[in-house]
Write a structure and sequence with these properties.
The complex is a heterodimer of chains A (63) and B (133). Chain A is mostly helical and 63 residues long. In chain A, 59% of the residues lie in helices and 6% in strands. Chain B folds into 2 domains: 48 residues; 69 residues. In chain B, helix 1 runs antiparallel to helix 2 and helix 3 runs antiparallel to helix 4. The relative contact order of chain B is 0.08. Classes of the chains: A mainly alpha (63), B mainly alpha (133). The interface between A and B is small, with 13 and 9 residues.
Chain lengths: 63, 133
């Protein structure tokens, strides 16, 4: 599973801490997801996509 | 309180508890150590309440679950192995103390297994174990 969280964050000038605060997780979790070391739950994946106003398939990709 | 401030406070409280317990050992005063630990627990509780940052999320819970399972596996196997060793040694040497210790350890291992099975069943039901239809 890969994702484009870093890209969407950069497009919105958002730090990892900002995103973590908005979706209610720790910054370490955002770091782990961005590095593809942790696969988020479906709920968290939807929350992240919602935060970027994007569809989940635009943010996450299953390979 | 931010996560960074929380981490600093946690270190300060841990230092306070260690210092109090060390002083209690030096002065041979059990009440001092008890008071130190209780005050520490109270402070940790208050700091948790004051912290607005997220301290636990799904990743931390997942890590905790895996760590707990690993701890359970290692501790149960170790206790069961030790129980076997003590029981065998006790039987061979005729020392009743070793045998008793072995039996006690085997009961602890069994208690661990029973507790794990019960909590697994309970949590499994909570998360919708498949019912026969």
């Amino acid at each position: 599973m890969t994702n484009k969280i870093k890209v969407f964050r950069a497009m919105r000038n958002m730090t990892q801490e900002d995103l973590a605060d908005k979706i209610g997780v720790t910054r370490q979790t955002i770091i782990a997801i961005e590095k593809n070391k942790y696969v988020p739950s479906l709920e968290l994946a939807f929350k992240i996509a919602d935060e970027f106003n994007e569809k989940i398939e635009n943010v996450f990709e299953y390979k | 309180m931010t996560y960074k401030q929380f981490k600093i406070m946690r270190v300060l409280i841990a230092s306070f508890i260690s210092a109090t317990v060390a002083m209690a050992i030096v002065y041979n005063n059990i009440l001092l150590s008890l008071a130190g630990v209780l005050i520490g627990i109270l402070f940790i509780f208050l700091v948790h309440k004051k912290t607005k940052a997220v301290l636990v999320d799904e990743r931390i819970k997942s890590i905790g679950g895996k760590a707990a399972r690993l701890t359970y596996t290692i501790s149960t196997i170790t206790i069961a192995f030790l129980s076997l060793m003590f029981t065998m040694t006790g039987k061979h040497t005729g020392q009743a103390d070793y045998e008793m210790l072995g039996i006690l350890l085997s009961y602890i291992a069994l208690f661990n297994l029973a507790l794990y099975s019960l909590s697994y069943k309970f949590i499994s039901k909570k998360y919708g174990e498949a019912d026969d239809e």
